Amino acid sequence: MGHRWDPIAPPVTGLVRPVHVDPTGRRGPTRGQARGAKWRSVGPGLVVPAHVADDLVEQRILEAASRAGPRSVVTAWAALRLHGGGFFDGLARDGRTRLPVPIAANGERLGSDDAILVVRLTVPPDEVVEIHGIRCAVPERALFDEMRRIGGAREMAVAAGAACAGQLTSLHRMALYRSTRRWYRDVRVVGRALDMAVEDCRSPQEDRFRMIWEYDAGWGRPLRNHPVLDLDGRLVAVPDLLDPVRGVVGEYAGADHRDIDQHESDIAREAALRAVGLEYVEVVGRDLYRADRVTQRMREAQSRARQLPCLWQLGPPPSPTLDEILDARDRSSDARWLDPGSDPNQITSLDGR
Prior knowledge:
The protein is an alpha+beta fold. It contains eleven helices and 17 strands. The radius of gyration is 23 Å and the shape is elongated.
């Protein structure tokens, strides 16, 4: 099982496609049966067995898509999830509130509700693929729509970084996509946000810390997840953020850092970095809403770093690059958009189709 904060979602199997209520009872439950305890309604005339929960975000997406009609296309965060983006979990930033599934109606008569957000845009055929039997937008179009859905340059850039972390696309590929879609609405706004994005932050929260570092503190773009070695070439750490001129590293401590073993490792890591002459700034989730608090810590760390000897050096940059990874994946399969983790035929169909 992958880590909770793994940017690549685990493969999904066992999804159950909703069925229509059938007055004959042959291809689905009758209306009377559908009202019973053995079935759960997912929309007008559509049900799944009651034991099928919608806790799994992919099941929730499938249920929403089943209501939308054959021409509709799942897009934005939901399509990015189907492509394997682990950070696109269908929840708001509070980690609890469910987001409605964004669907481009593409001519279908469809209205928004708590489960579906209708996108009044057309997704052309060359931007549509099938995953789990669901028509969804290709990663570049899905990310473009997600950035438009979010609004706000910083959060748009965070979404781009999350898609890159999940190896769904790259900033280079998004730039090419944007250059060939100049007539799309909001293309300039998305372009400005892409200029703010980076590919190599390991989580959205780490990326939000990077934004404070770069734009609120005015320190410029830090190195991200770059190895730090001692003068003998031994690995000291791979900090989240690093300013090699100021001699300051930044670390985001998520909820998993409260684990006693992880906390012990964090303390040792901080000591190791300070021992070679690097100062340390740690933030938690609540700090990201207080940029002034974080920038004050950064200034204090910079002041302390001036007193430390420089006993460290930069290691080689991580490799391969994201574009190299994506290009190699493309070469390994003639069908670039196949879902490598699952087979659409594994969806359970209750009506025999």
